[in-house]
Design a protein that fits this description.
By secondary structure, the chain is of the alpha/beta class. Helix content is about 35%, strand content about 15%. It contains 12 helices and 13 strands. α1 links the parallel β2 and β3.
Length: about 350
């Protein structure tokens, strides 16, 4: 398959079984380096997104890189676009990619038995992207045998976009490595943490909330990691990019984690939310469509309306002012993740999709 950086899931049989699966990652993803870091305890899971956990549910799974862009690969993709999907099927393994940004490259991998892709960003791009871009993306997604999304709010819009006669859209609930992001004792000094900088984080609302927290509880340390260029409130510490190990340490030092996002359908913030909860820290997060898939029905998380800085601050202050409640909710947070939101659960859900 012209792929590099193969990594074999431990304890699995050799290739060739009827359930063989290959997880394809972008050409530039250093899979061998990721595995080394995992072995050294510096990264969660042996593969990105914890897809090594598929090994518990299929006969054999490998991780490989997609081919790098070359003139030959470009010609191959042009040929793929001009020919029916059936001509690209074979008796090889099942192939999958994590998101839609790699779907055209997966479609051009020859001889795969079937192809599956996650879709992360597209449902929030339908109103903004050019029609020609959307048509190309739709064409590639329709060449897949199945798709999955991480939010229930994405299922309907994506199925409508690709057509009812297109591949089925599955809802797959995400999970995190609860062994890497393990629980820690409550901190002795109060610390509020906010992490993340994707396109739908709401720095303006977050900063208004943090300013109120600083005003009412100046003794509380506040640390944020963000890509926003807005000036944070006085007394708030801004940190640059964090490694996975540094991120875990920050969560474990925290009293509470706070996340503010703009309305979106791809549940921006849910990864950080689950990671922080896995360490036993209560979460406060914006309630956007699909967020209840992850943080509903638990005392470990509280959701507030979008753009409501007062509600965000009030929820944080209640926890900061009540150590007993904070500890109880932190324990509930850890139990919530263990009960259905780990990469073990994620592996089972993705395996169910690709086995259809």
């Amino acid at each position: 398959m012209g792929a590099t950086g193969a990594v074999r899931a431990r304890g699995m049989s050799g290739a060739g079984g009827s359930d063989d699966v290959v997880v394809f990652y972008p050409a530039g993803k250093d899979l061998a380096g990721w595995a080394r870091d995992y072995g050294a305890g510096a990264r969660p899971d042996a593969w990105p997104y914890g897809l090594n956990k598929l090994a518990h549910h299929v006969s054999s799974v490998k991780a490989r890189n997609l081919p790098r862009d070359t003139a030959m690969q470009g010609a191959l993709r042009r040929l793929m676009r001009a020919t029916p999907p059936a001509l690209w099927r074979g008796r090889g393994p099942v192939g999958l990619v994590w998101d839609e940004n790699s779907v055209d490259r997966l479609a051009a991998v020859p001889a795969l038995r079937s192809r599956f892709s996650g879709v992360v960003w597209l449902t929030d791009q339908l109103a903004t992207k050019e029609p020609s871009w959307l048509a190309e993306r739709r064409s590639m997604l329709r060449r897949m045998d199945g798709l999955w999304v991480l939010s229930s709010a994405q299922v309907g819009p994506l199925q409508h976009f690709i057509g009812e006669d297109g591949p089925r859209v599955h809802h797959v609930v995400f999970g995190v490595d609860a062994d890497f992001f393990h629980a820690a004792p409550p901190p002795e000094t109060p610390l509020l943490v906010s992490v993340g900088g994707d396109r739908d984080r709401d720095a303006a609302t977050l900063f208004r909330a943090l300013a109120r927290v600083r005003h009412e509880r100046p003794d509380v340390e506040i640390i944020i990691q963000t890509t926003s260029r807005e000036e944070p409130p006085a007394g708030v510490t801004l940190v640059p990019h964090l490694s996975h190990g540094e991120l875990r340490q920050l969560y474990q030092r925290a009293s509470v984690c706070v996340i503010a996002t703009r309305p979106n359908t791809h549940v921006s913030g849910m990864t950080v939310g689950l990671e922080s909860m896995a360490t036993g820290r209560p979460l406060i997060i914006t309630e956007t469509p699909g967020m209840a898939d992850y943080f509903g029905g638990t005392d470990g998380a509280q959701m507030v309306a979008p753009s409501d800085a007062d509600a965000l601050a009030a929820a944080a202050l209640r926890l900061l002012n009540d150590p007993t409640q904070r500890q109880r909710r932190g324990q509930a947070a850890r139990a919530h993740v263990e009960g259905g939101f780990t990469t073990d659960h994620l592996g089972a859900r993705v395996a169910a999709v690709v086995s259809v």
